[in-house]
Amino acid sequence: MAQPLDVREIYDLFMSIHEPELMTDVIPTLGDTYESETEEQWQERAERYEKAFQLFQERFLNFLDGWKSALLARKTEAISNSKTKVGAQELVKLRELEQLFQDQ
Question: What span, in angstroms and rounded, lies between the C-alpha atoms of 75 and 55?
Answer without folding.
Answer: 30
